[in-house]
Amino acid sequence: MRSALLISILGALTACEGTHDGKACMSVPADQTTCPPAKSVRTEDLFSPESCGSEVVELKGEGKREVVGDSPTEACCYPAKVTDPDSGCSVGRPYWDDGAQRQAPLRFSVDASSANHLERAAAWAAAGSAEHASVAAFARLSLQLMSLGAPTALLRDVHQAALEEVKHAEQCWGFACLFGGAEVTPGPFPFQTSPSTSVSLAELAAAAVREGCLAETLGAHVLGVAAEHAPEAAVRAALLSMAEEEARHAVLSFRIVAWALSVGDAEVRASIRAAFAAPWPRVDVEELGLRSNVDVQRLLVAAQQGTHEVLAPAAAHLLAV
């Protein structure tokens, strides 16, 4: 069975404009047996389990309980009219500066050296720092896309991704405080050079392949498995939310590369192929296992499956478009 993430990527790459009858779902607690009336549901709380990049035009009936996705998500799903993703349609994206990954230094409110879960708190704090750096990466990406005349749909979703990365950083630092007993806040971000909008389409597309199509896609897949198996309810809920949003960011990267292919020349296509031909990323399963309290071996298997069952077919489909 194809993964939900792969289906979303393929849907984004093969979409056409228009509307169709589908369904829109909202996540609900496992113990909630009834669905809210359709008239009381906010569209921003809904997602499409069938395709990424769709927007809900209207709900056409009442909802019913379903379990959706390969990493089962309890949801209420409603019959709906949804838009097809437009022609520009759609763990953590690193911020590269002067040849190195940059992250803000962290500040701790108290000495947490006596905490019972210091190692776990440190893992959550580091994850928050990486998510925080993603905000800078998406901010720079939005300016670069503007300089190259990208569709506004891509700009909108890049900014939405940046806001979600802010939330992820805050969630991670919240768990760092919970396990370590110290409030965590970021210091000044160590920009070595001014964020540049001077980038070619070939350069932007290659970066989107490395940082998004590969790194974010694999990270989102493994994060989803960690969320599914995390034994603590609060951690499981947070990881599930992060995994869903990181999956949208991954699909967004495929949309950006697909747009670059549609408007670019042979140099752009060669740059994209070279980026996919380079060694593919790895996920720090040790850190994720520590954060999620999930067996590392299970996460290693998930990373291997993600590479073969999501990344490989998604890359092949993109390059065939």
What topology emerges from the helices and strands here?
Elements: H1 4-14, E1 19-27, E2 56-59, E3 64-68, E4 73-83, E5 96-97, E6 100-101, E7 106-108, H2 118-147, H3 152-180, E8 184-186, H4 201-229, H5 233-263, H6 266-277, H7 285-292, H8 296-320
Antiparallel strand pairs: 1-4, 2-4, 3-4, 5-6, 7-8
Walk me through this protein's architecture.
By secondary structure, this protein is an alpha+beta fold. It folds into two domains: 18-83, no CATH class; 96-320, Ferritin. It is built from eight helices and eight strands, in the order αβββββββααβααααα. It has helices spanning 4-14, 118-147, 152-180, 201-229, 233-263, 266-277, 285-292, 296-320; strands at 19-27, 56-59, 64-68, 73-83, 96-97, 100-101, 106-108, 184-186. The strands form three sheets. Strands 1, 2, 3 and 4 form a four-stranded antiparallel beta sheet that branches. A two-stranded antiparallel ribbon has the order 5-6. Strand 3 and strand 4 (73-83) form a beta hairpin.
